[in-house]
Amino acid sequence: MEDNLLLQAIERYLDGTMLSAEKAYFEELRKNTPEIDQMVVEHSMFLHQMDLYSAQRNMKHTLHEVHTKLLERGDINEGGELNTRGRVIQLYNKYKRVTAIAASVGGIIALVISGLTVYFTPANNNQLQELKREVEVVKRNQQYQGAKLNEVDSKLPKDAVLTGGGSGFLIDAKGYIITNAHVLKGSSFANVINNNHDEFSAKIIYRDEARDLAILKIEDEDYKPLKTLPYGFRKTDIDLGEEVFTLGYPRNDITYNKGDLSAKTGYNGDSTRWQLEMNANPGNSGGPVLDKNGEVIGVLSTREKHAEGVAFAIKSKNIFKMINEVKDTDTSLEKIKMTSHSSIKGMERAIQIKEMENCVFLVQAFNKK
């Protein structure tokens, strides 16, 4: 639908001149298309503001006429001052009830506008879907992964209760993993599984709910730390249209996906996130998003519910900020050394993936009974 036709339709919808069949179709379109819904809200508020502006202009015009008449009658002088104090009292007593009503109406209008804005503007939580794995999905995969609860071959305690899962990746070769805080919601510990289906015990060492980031540390004698990471972390912006890719665990095996940077901000202009033109599924939460040079630009976290192929990633510079903020109070984070150097720069994509796939983990979150 062209913009002019869409605006005409919105105006007919708002002024009540739209036919019932067309109105039903438009309301369904509005329900399923957040962008159109937002346009309706914004246009409604715009028309309301125009009405207020017109009312203010009329009020000023009326006041000007009253002022002119008072001058002609000699009730005030050219400086705008009343000639007698008694007339001020007389006028106040005459119009004080009208003044009070006008002030009350003004307050009510302000409250109504605020209420309409809150009511019609879609909330982030209603429009975004976290990409964590649901409990039932993780449970169905545990036998395949060789991490069955309450069995001797599992590294988990017998009283472990599964709370969810997602993806994660190394930010330091010594076994420090970044993921989303919502992946670990309601959990007290985790295990991580690599591309070879090797299971390792992990400790949750820090959670930042505001940034939706969390850090795990692999603490398992079977884990052999890497010497270096193949990828680096990018602090600077990337250009719109740049190709990006991700690795994660929306299924049992590691999965690759690619897309493009479609906006430099997230949902509703969130400056801490990128918007990606990319298909993302539950289980992708916490996976790395990389540019063509093999530099991490973000952590995949959410997707838009009612728009196909729109995902959001937390910018990698937020990982640096988080670690720097808490280093003074959490000495364990002082050991984390993030690098900007990527040794897979210039390689073909298949080789880049092969070099880094054992740095990306399936994360399973647990709590105790």
Describe this structure in words.
This protein has 369 residues and is of the alpha+beta class. The protein has two domains: 33-122; 128-369, Thrombin, subunit H (Beta Barrel). The protein has eight helices and 14 strands. The strands form two sheets. A six-stranded antiparallel barrel has the order 8-9-10-13-12-11. Helix 1 packs across helix 3 (34-73). The two termini are 54 Å apart. 29% of the residues are buried. The model is unreliable at 105-123 and 142-152 (pLDDT under 50).
Radius of gyration, CA atoms, in whole angstroms: 30 Å
- Strands ordered across the widest β-sheet: 8-9-10-13-12-11
Quote the beta fraction.
15-25%
Overall tally of domains = 2
Mean of all residue-level pLDDT scores: 80
Low-confidence stretches: 105-123, 142-152
- Based on the coordinates given, report the CATH architecture of the largest domain: Beta Barrel
The level-1 CATH class of the largest domain = Mainly Beta
Overall body shape: elongated
Topology:
Elements: H1 3-15, H2 20-32, H3 34-73, H4 85-120, H5 124-127, E1 128-130, H6 135-145, E2 160-172, E3 176-179, E4 189-193, E5 199-208, E6 213-218, E7 232-233, E8 243-248, E9 255-263, E10 273-277, E11 288-291, E12 295-304, E13 310-315, H7 317-326, H8 349-356, E14 360-368
Parallel strand pairs: 7-12
Antiparallel strand pairs: 1-12, 2-3, 2-14, 3-6, 4-5, 4-14, 5-6, 8-9, 8-11, 9-10, 10-13, 11-12, 12-13
Helix pairs in contact: 1-3, 2-3
